[in-house]
Design brief:
This protein is mainly alpha-helical and 104 residues long. 62% of the residues lie in helices and 0% in strands. It has a single domain, classed as Collagenase (Catalytic Domain), CATH 3.40.390. The longest helix has 23 residues. The relative contact order is 0.14.
């Protein structure tokens, strides 16, 4: 199953030239796939994982929305940010990139 997911995302599992870098690439993509799966548990891909309580959703939305728009403003102004430019695509990708960086 994992090999099929990686292959679908164009990730080489061989690491023929540099085995260490091949494994790093695999784990990076696994973390991204993991983030998207967590995000879609509630039936929507919106950058918000399934949470337990309404208050958690409010807090998540307040913090993550502010951080996402701050990231987009910095990107538009050409400022350096911790997350890469792809994180500014939308909230779902922002969550995935942040998860990738967490596991990196």
């Amino acid at each position: 199953m994992l090999k099929r997911l990686l292959k679908a995302n164009n990730v080489s599992t061989s690491g023929e030239t540099e085995p260490y870098l091949g494994n790093l690439k695999i784990w990076r993509h696994i973390s991204i796939i993991f983030a998207h799966i967590l995000d879609m548990f509630d039936g929507r891909e919106d950058g918000t994982p399934l949470l337990n309580y309404r208050e958690q959703y409010r807090a998540w939305a307040e913090v993550c929305t502010r951080v996402f728009y701050d990231l987009r403003q910095k990107m538009e102004k050409g400022r350096k940010t911790f997350l890469n430019a792809y994180a500014a695509t939308n909230e779902a990708e922002s969550f995935a990139v942040a998860t990738e960086y967490f596991f990196d």
